[in-house]
Amino acid sequence: MLDQALESLKTYEWGVEPKAVQSIQDAVVASHGDAAARKKLESTLAEILGTDSPRAAKDTVCRGLKT
Question: Cys bridge to 23: 5, 8, 15, 46, which one at CB 3.0-4.6 A?
Fold first, then answer.
């Protein structure tokens, strides 16, 4: 499910159903206390920043990385 949310996030625009965003936020929260899971999630999210994904997607990634 997280993989699907990450794929959806790559095309996420503000004003669109934020289902992918919620899944990403849930994964960030769930990774607290699990260094390996957190590192993997951080790496995966950071990869999106280097793509041509919309600003809304990158904003969501930055918020996830900040948490």
Answer: 5
